[in-house]
């Protein structure tokens, strides 16, 4: 099987589309593939998004630089995934973030006219694309809520509650404290201090990267949510 078709089949955008249809699609749609080294800038903040980017291999990070020059990591994205699916159709197509390769990365670029053509001819592709855009709106709402939290304690409590709801009270952190601090837009020592406070107060337990939520109600009170009765 063509390696491109194999990797596309793993991506949610092409889920449910038979191999034969994928081969037919990419025999007609103009596309290109680029590879990037770790740390290399893939797309620059403010550049115009004229093609859809599909991350086939590797991991990237989206980061933003504020007016003071501070770089804040917005999210990390692992293959296979679509990058900035909605911007290609926006009136203002300027990317709000830098996209940077974390490791060796392979990206498929697809022209906007080709995307529109596929949507008109393949209902499954259209449903998948709209689903991805909807999921990203949900993620954006989550990030806006996180930004509305004023203190590091609130941000960390919200993060731990979300992880516990997804994985149960005991889970393993998949990212480093440095990466989590970047996502919160705070200094790592400050975040580590709050982790220590939560541990000493019996709210969480820590064993390396493993976290156990011991007092969910306390986390909810910190965030400002009503505790369970």
From TrEMBL:
One example GO MF annotation: DNA binding
UniProt-listed InterPro entries: cNMP-bd_dom, cNMP-bd_dom_sf, Env_Response_Regulators, HTH_CRP, RmlC-like_jellyroll, WH_DNA-bd_sf
Organism: Mesotoga infera
Phylogenetic classification of the source organism: Bacteria, Thermotogati, Thermotogota, Thermotogae, Kosmotogales
SUPFAM superfamilies the UniProt entry points to: cAMP-binding domain-like, Winged helix' DNA-binding domain
Signal peptide extent: none
Name of protein: Transcriptional regulator, Crp/Fnr family
Annotated Gene Ontology cellular component terms: cytosol
Keywords assigned: DNA-binding, Transcription, Transcription regulation
Residue intervals of the HTH crp-type domain: 150-217
The keyword Ligase is annotated on this UniProt entry: no
Domain of life where this protein originates: Bacteria
Domain Cyclic nucleotide-binding: 13-118
Pfam families: cNMP_binding, HTH_Crp_2
Transcription keyword on record: yes
